[in-house]
């Protein structure tokens, strides 16, 4: 169960990460098991019950929009703004393993469809 709070420890800088982007609401860092040449994870700094997208409530609307805008900023910073994918796994059947909502920004290679 230690991994459930891993992202909280990354936000608090207790666990080191390779930070790509940070502002007052989100933190973006390189995935430790990249699935593409560019693979960055974007998380809200405050979980506020937002463990997965399937549990989002109206009060989360602003942070959800901010996360997507931050994904675009990450893609620009990483040089893949001309083509990138944003993935959100929601729930165990979608292979979500860390219950702190997070986006995966993937790019730097041709993505395939369907994705899995």
Automatic annotation (TrEMBL):
InterPro entries: Histidine_triad_CS, Histidine_triad_HIT, HIT-like, HIT-like_sf. Residues 6-116 form the HIT domain. Gene3D superfamilies: HIT-like. A motif (Histidine triad motif) lies at residues 100-104. This is 14 kDa zinc-binding protein. It comes from Platanthera guangdongensis.
